Amino acid sequence: MTDRRTPGADTLSFARHSWAGLRVLLVLTVLLGVVYPLAVTGVAQLTMRWQANGSLVSSSGERVTSADEAIGSVLIGQQFDGPQWFHPRPSAAGDGYDTLASAGSNLGPLNADLLATVTQRRADVAAAEGVDPSAVPVDAVTASGSGLDPDISPAYAQLQVARVARERGVPALDVAALVENLTLGRDLGVLGEPRVDVLRLNLALQTLDS
């Protein structure tokens, strides 16, 4: 059977389809790579600027949007050293709460090193808080998957009340009230667990010292 196609038709068809595909690529690149991100950024800056800029807070506990004024973010945990502070859960991110090395330990529940570490942490927390090791909550001895968890359980926060109050020379009832007031419930009533943001809690301690 004789091929009646015009010479060069395949080349023209390929060029036409290639140009059509390139135009679609360019349009999608502009829409999804430029217009959409700019629109989302603009809406976020107009309607929820604090959250969009990292949920930063100053040393006075005020919301700020400039990193120069901030001492931390309520979304990212950080270490607090000294018995006068509420302590966060352990962190396996670098040397601890390293934002450039977010990670868990990746050790399984039967790993001997992990079990030894948890046992030592439980003993250390029990000694620091003056309680029996069996009273130490699990989040006090285990790191989160990110290593940057900003929250602790209400149980762990309440466990630290007596020590913090004693070190600061303030009534334990006042410190316990701060924990109660800053305890957040489950999202939408069903998601997650009750929690306390450690940074917010430690900043709130300033109101008792003044």
From TrEMBL:
<keyword id="KW-0812">Transmembrane</keyword>
<keyword id="KW-0406">Ion transport</keyword>
<comment type="subunit">
    <text>The system is composed of three essential subunits: KdpA, KdpB and KdpC.</text>
</comment>
<keyword id="KW-0630">Potassium</keyword>
<comment type="similarity">
    <text>Belongs to the KdpC family.</text>
</comment>
<dbReference type="GO" id="GO:0005524">
    <property type="term" value="F:ATP binding"/>
</dbReference>
<dbReference type="Pfam" id="PF02669">
    <property type="entry name" value="KdpC"/>
</dbReference>
<keyword id="KW-1003">Cell membrane</keyword>
<keyword id="KW-0633">Potassium transport</keyword>
<keyword id="KW-0067">ATP-binding</keyword>
<dbReference type="GO" id="GO:0008556">
    <property type="term" value="F:P-type potassium transmembrane transporter activity"/>
</dbReference>
<keyword id="KW-0547">Nucleotide-binding</keyword>
<comment type="function">
    <text>Part of the high-affinity ATP-driven potassium transport (or Kdp) system, which catalyzes the hydrolysis of ATP coupled with the electrogenic transport of potassium into the cytoplasm. This subunit acts as a catalytic chaperone that increases the ATP-binding affinity of the ATP-hydrolyzing subunit KdpB by the formation of a transient KdpB/KdpC/ATP ternary complex.</text>
</comment>
<feature type="transmembrane region" description="Helical">
    <location>
        <begin position="20"/>
        <end position="39"/>
    </location>
</feature>
<keyword id="KW-0813">Transport</keyword>
<keyword id="KW-1133">Transmembrane helix</keyword>
<protein>
    <recommendedName>
        <fullName>Potassium-transporting ATPase KdpC subunit</fullName>
    </recommendedName>
</protein>
<dbReference type="GO" id="GO:0005886">
    <property type="term" value="C:plasma membrane"/>
</dbReference>
<dbReference type="InterPro" id="IPR003820">
    <property type="entry name" value="KdpC"/>
</dbReference>
<keyword id="KW-0472">Membrane</keyword>
